[in-house]
Amino acid sequence: MDEYVGITRQQSTLPELINGLSPEQQQRVERLRAQLNERRAQLTLFRSPLRTLAAFAASAASSAARGAAWLASHPATLFLLAPLLLLYVFLKASGALAEEVHEAELWLQYVVWWVGLGVLSSIGLGTGMHSGLLFLFPHMLKVCLAAERCGHLRFDARADMWWSSEGFHCGEEGEADGAAAAAAAALGFWDIYKKVIPTAVLWGAGTALGEIPPYAISYHAAKAGKRSAEVEAMLGVGGANGGAGGSGGRAGPLTLLVNRMKNWMLNFIQAHGFWGILLLAAYPNAAFDLCGICCGHFQMPFWEFFGATLIGKGGIKIAGQTAFFVALFREQTRERVFDALERIVPDVLPFLHLNGLTPAQVKGRVGLHWGAIATRVGRGHALRHGRRRLRVIRTAALGSAAGACMCTPDGTQTVRSAQAPLPARPLPPSPGPLQAAHQLVNMRIREFQAGVARRAAAQAADPRWFHQKALATLGSWHSARGALLAARPSPWGAVVLLMIGSFVRSVIEQFAQGYVAERDRRQLQDEVERLLKQQ
Asked: For the purposes of burial, counting CB atoms within 10 Å of the CB of 477, is it exposed (0-12), middle (13-18) or buried (19 or more)?
């Protein structure tokens, strides 16, 4: 009988076991749950770095072991991957089909790189790395610039992967300025679009794959009948701690807005299913992780969820993004779009107080045209130093007028007629807001092109991989110190480093907290079972 009771308790879920306790024991379990949740909330790199890194290492080791065991026992590994790996080792060792093997290696690196970047972009419940902004869109710009430089598209775009700084080679045709410009003008928008769309589709497919973990976690939790505080908080349902209704009286306006968005998305997915997911995935949706959690919570079939996500993210959304960025980066299309917008948008907008001048242009001209800028922007918007300069000029003018008096023969004093004022130096025409944006975009593209050429030249001079250069630099104290002093990242480089650092921090903390959450759940279940045995 005791064995039967033990088996029944093992098959029961934790909420069902807690319901079998007395009220005093339930309060004790809830106090333990609150203590564990509070301790787990402190598990961050800034508050508890050593505990967080230790939990992350344990989680990574456990996940790697489980993944290796699953991969080794999967039929696809036994009947497809293992024979292909043996064939590759044989061909590599014998030297047979060297060109074909090298081509296969390039394609494998190309697919793994861009699909992996897509996964990194969407994985992590909204804390993924923005690999589209960091890698995909700059790749599109490189392709457009290489097409304009070479005058053709017969270069290998797969070279831009795995942190390689090698530029695109024009091939045997070389770079002839006049001929390349004429040939580049003949390249249409759709020619460049077809060149970059395979890379974009691979990245989009990776973003769809990155939405699987939230769906899988929520699906298995719902299928096992488990209650997850994290899932309930994301869904905006549940008790007083996680639900919108329980904390609505103390919630701020932003929290209420987010909860309303969650509830709307929940009802939208329930009502429309596949087509609702397709629509939510067809545009840049930062809250799409909620869709995966909701679909897993409702136990939606996997292929229905993933199929809609793949079509929306890897097809519809990425096609529109590619068209936009190719139009922006291709010179002819960009000039036409800006020319059309400049004819439509007025030069002076009511919400811009500088009559078309951007703040950067004001700062550039303020040293030369104090009075002119003060006149253009009005006395209420004149700069403080401009007012000071105007006062100095006014005082000097009054002093020169006072000293310009002369005596007449009858002894009276008269003031010498003031000289005619010098004509004001004409200012260059002030660009409108669209013209300023047009100039800024062109300037940034030229800077990016110069940076690509500079990195390609450095790569040609030293073709070693990034890690080899880093190890050589760190080999001696003097070289490391010199590299550290010379490392002055540009503003964009600093932004890239901050984004990558934020992504790494979020990944470490989420893995660590997930590992500790599972350990806390087992500890809580052991405590509940111990209390049940005491009854």
From this structure: exposed
Distance CA 391, CA 384 (A): 11
Phi, psi dihedral angles at 12 (to 5 degrees): -80, 155
Of 278, 122, 295, the C-alpha closest to 207 is 122
CA distances from 344 to 65, 302, 414, 418, 510 (A): 61, 48, 58, 47, 49
- Cβ atoms 229, 242 nearer than 8 A: yes
Residue-wise pLDDT tens digits, 439-494: 888 888 888 888 777 777 777 777 676 667 777 777 777 777 777 766 666 676 67
Is the pLDDT higher at 20 or at 148? 148
Listed range (270-279, 297-306, 358-367) with the worst mean pLDDT: 358-367
**Token pair listed for 330:** 């291709």
- Give the up-direction half-sphere exposure of residue 126: CA atoms within 13 A in the CB hemisphere: 9
In this structure, what token pair is assigned to residue 252? 């701020």
Strand partners, 413: 407
| Listed residue (117, 138, 70) closest to 445, CA to CA | 138
d(CA 122, CA 130): 8
Token reading at 71: 């991969």
> DSSP label at 159?
G
